[in-house]
Specification:
Chain lengths: 266, 266
Amino acid sequence: MLIADPHDPRLDDIRDLNKSDKSGEGLVIAEGHLVVSRLVSSRFPVRCIVGFANALKHYVETYGEPGCPMYEVDRATLAEVVGFDMHRGLVAAADRVAPLEVSEAISDAKTVVVLEGVGDHENIGSLFRNAAGMDVDAVLLGAGAADPLYRRSVRVSMGHVLRLPFARFDGGFTTWQRNLDLLADAGFHLVSLTPDNEAVHLAEALAGHDKVALMVGAEGPGLTEHAMRATHVRARIPMAEGTDSFNVATAAAIAFYERQRSLYQG
Amino acid sequence: MLIADPHDPRLDDIRDLNKSDKSGEGLVIAEGHLVVSRLVSSRFPVRCIVGFANALKHYVETYGEPGCPMYEVDRATLAEVVGFDMHRGLVAAADRVAPLEVSEAISDAKTVVVLEGVGDHENIGSLFRNAAGMDVDAVLLGAGAADPLYRRSVRVSMGHVLRLPFARFDGGFTTWQRNLDLLADAGFHLVSLTPDNEAVHLAEALAGHDKVALMVGAEGPGLTEHAMRATHVRARIPMAEGTDSFNVATAAAIAFYERQRSLYQG
């Protein structure tokens, strides 16, 4: 259905994306064909897809009918509504749903990652992308972790925040500790990632465990001492002298790789 | 020496950074204490360091006298000169120097990375940071690789583009092939990184080699077939079904990790 008027209220879900990621309105925004298709096949109820005529046509041809309203707009209208020139010409909005419980997120999981204080939306997005790429089963968001459903996180994750189960793991020290106990009771081997030279090599820390929970902290400060103390082992990625810690999503990717490698070797 | 006039020509080296990375003027720009210190200890001749009084004082206390002019400016002056509010308050400029020859860059190297078509400045910066962190000895820039000395690359690399040797590897197909032959003749095991499921596991591809050259391509297209054909083996990082390739700097980081791991195990 063609909408020519930029003030049409049916376009409100994607209005002023340059000023807001729509979190405040309880919405999740997806941009581009691949990410929109991941939103459509996710647990989030899609409200609408808006795009150029050819982008909508291409979407339906590639992914089928989405089962939600599709609004056709021209380039000028879309630019006026979202607040910038969206050259890919396809955007969708969905309602947020309640986050999973930790117990749900980990129920069938073999590999999970626990974040403490990863507050950057781009890092969170990259981390989900890397986790999805290497068969991590769930992401547990500790205190200070950024919202994975923020528009930028959705985009950087290539939509994997919409697919990969995650749960909130925060609520202060007591809850944090209780959740870690829950993981340990469920048979997870808890591993802290740290640049500390005293820690054991990542490969040794991960070898021979059926279930692994990898804990990573924010770039810069890293994990707190109390978080590391609550894990079974501290693991390091060996680094060259005179260099800095890695970006948190990169360090996590290496750990996910090592985890898959340990399973691959049997 | 305090400079109060934003039009003072001694500040020309850092003028209008918002509009230009100064490459066109043959300059390299470093921002912040750590990166400036890496510029000062690099092979690039530093022309000046400009900063707030406390930033300059802190720099000298931490890293010693830099052996170049230091100009003190206040916040408003610096903002007017560079074109944005530079809250860290420390910036330096150096002259570019001629790039190394490939033969120089690889002379004592055990691990090198060869880039084909990695055109994004942020990816190039991340890649250098990851390479430096995992003892890669040199970066060889093939056709289409972005300039590592671009301001954004310098910043994202944490200054490692200023420390890690690199050389241009391009000049068309003939030169590319000749350079690969040079690597092979020098005893390097040439390894292509590809998401192709037919390729061997990265761990198998890297095991048991004294010298390794890892070749990576741009995100999206990846390495060209002719580049891969010129290597000894094609290696893959196993990926979960239904996921995309990794960011190129992330994939490279995993390969660097695996390389270090193979040496660590002996």
